[in-house]
Design a protein that fits this description.
The chain is an alpha/beta fold and 354 residues long. The protein is built from 15 helices and 9 strands. β1 (10-16), α2 (20-31) and β2 form a beta-alpha-beta unit.
Length: 354
């Protein structure tokens, strides 16, 4: 086996937009990887801040900086990266996160040991805007997936339906470049969950790997675009729209999703309705919020909800919101709601600064 085959070039892509504040820390963590045969492709999506100056202050010859003339959108910028890389392996890391020094090495070894795996992710630690650790906020692998290195479409899709959010952390991914040749590039839509759609498209043709290790310090901020979107939307979350779209996937191979999984999935949608109602109240749409909350009042919801502690917390909050909404004091419950919701699903991934 040649040295080239043992130690191939890996392209680490860093799509970015107006992230001068943090991209220096990100680049430092990539430069100091234990696996050093990498090219670092920074695709700047027409930033108007000092991103270019910060990137060019690094003298590492492995860094390749490209700047789009206009902002082409998040997922088009991902595609710009794919069109610029030289390697057969590609990682997509975010420009505000900090990476453990062995993430590239461990992800590459995972792909080498599992030739049927097309893409691999890791778990995370979470930091705030100041770089301080946020305890117990990282994504956890669903219990039903523990003990295995990779997953087929059926078990991955079932776990996503049950989880209520994605445990596949976009800024930790590494893939074989051939995957995108077979599956296609990122689709350009208005969905914030376009990344989840891509992972499921890949899962229809390849196995998906997840390293059960926390190899990234993922930065969370309540001023990020996805947080602002979540706190103001009054329609179904894109995550559910994407999952609904794969219900008839041929990759299910005729298997039926377990009834308990589907029940939990519908409960997750119920919780999404509660979030929508909270946003409606914050926007002064009290009548619409009351109608939505009341439409979810059913014995079936409680029957499903009492099976899991996390669901019980959500039912209690729903009851609080329902009562306060009809007493016209729901505004007082919004702060409590927001606090509890952060505790319940702070670990959800998915925000785009690219």
């Amino acid at each position: 086996m040649s040295k080239h085959e043992v130690n191939p070039l890996i392209s680490v892509c860093i799509p970015t937009y107006n992230n001068a504040q943090y991209i220096g820390k990100t680049l430092e963590s990539i430069i100091n990887q234990t696996y050093n045969n990498i090219e670092i492709v920074v695709s700047d999506n027409a930033s108007t801040d000092d991103t270019e100056r910060v990137v060019k202050s690094f003298r590492d010859k492995r860094i390749k900086y490209y700047k789009n003339k206009t902002n082409v959108g998040c997922y088009n910028n991902y595609n710009e990266c794919l069109n610029k890389i030289s390697a057969s392996y590609v990682a997509f890391y975010h420009s505000d996160d900090v990476y453990k020094p062995d993430i590239v090495e461990k992800e590459f070894k995972m792909l080498m040991k599992n030739p049927d795996v097309g893409i691999v992710f890791t778990l995370d630690e979470v930091i705030n805007g100041e770089g301080n650790d946020i305890k117990n906020a990282g994504v956890s692998l669903p219990a039903e997936l523990e003990g295995k290195a990779s997953y087929g479409f059926y078990e991955l899709y079932s776990a996503l339906l049950k989880a209520g959010g994605s445990f596949l952390i976009c800024p930790t991914l590494m893939a074989r470049k051939e995957v995108f040749g077979k599956v296609g590039l990122f689709q350009v839509t208005t969905d914030l969950a376009e990344d989840t759609k891509m992972w499921l498209r890949i899962a229809e043709k390849y196995k998906i790997g997840v390293l059960n290790e926390r190899l990234i310090k993922r930065r969370i901020s309540f001023v990020q675009g996805s947080y602002r979107y979540e706190s103001s939307r009054v329609g179904r979350a894109d995550h559910f729209v994407v999952l609904d779209g794969f219900m008839q996937s041929k990759a299910l191979c005729g298997k039926q999703i377990e009834e308990s999984v589907l029940e939990q999935y519908h409960f997750n949608k119920f919780w999404d309705d509660v979030i929508i109602a909270k946003n409606m109240i914050a926007l002064g749409k009290n009548k619409e919020a009351k109608k939505l909350l009341l439409s979810n009042l059913s014995a079936e919801k409680y029957k499903i909800g009492v099976r899991h502690l996390k669901n019980i917390y959500k039912l209690l909050l729903y009851n609080l919101f329902l009562v306060t909404a009809y007493c016209n004091v729901a505004g007082y419950a919004i702060n409590t709601f927001s606090f509890i919701k952060r505790k319940l699903d702070f670990s959800k991934s998915g925000r785009c600064i690219c």
